[in-house]
Amino acid sequence: MKKTNDIRDRAAEAELRSSNMEIMSKRIEDLPDDISRKYLELQKEIIMHDIRDQVEERRKLAAEKSKGINQSASSSSHQEPQINQSASSSSHPESRDSENESSETEENEEVAEVYEDEIDPTLDDLA
């Protein structure tokens, strides 16, 4: 059921984008009267406002997520000296290095996912 809802949501978003693209591609000069021109102008303004809001929201989410990742990285680096002090002489530095590398890789992948989803490529044509 969740997959069906996701598919329907994506279809609705695609239809909305298509409709918006059609509106944005129309030329105000081609319309017959002032009322139609004004209506198209208002529609374009609404679409651009919505796009700006979406971009701003995605940037905020990306900033919050990267801030959270940076905080978790800094908190783990603050915890590392405590671990080193309490570790016995039998601990292996190689195992700690591989753990740090894997956590850094995971963080980099999360940041990449955030920025990958940040801007819809169809929006480039609207600007």
From TrEMBL:
In residue numbers, the region (Disordered) covers 1-21, 58-127
Looking at the record's lineage, which domain of life comes first?
Eukaryota
Polar residues composition bias: residue spans: 68-85
Q: Where is the No apical meristem-associated C-terminal domain?
A: 3-46
One Pfam family this sequence matches: NAM-associated
Q: Basic and acidic residues: which segments have biased composition? A: 1-16, 58-67
Biased composition (Acidic residues) is annotated at: 100-127
Name by which UniProt lists this protein: No apical meristem-associated C-terminal domain-containing protein
Q: Which organism is it from?
A: Puccinia graminis f. sp. tritici
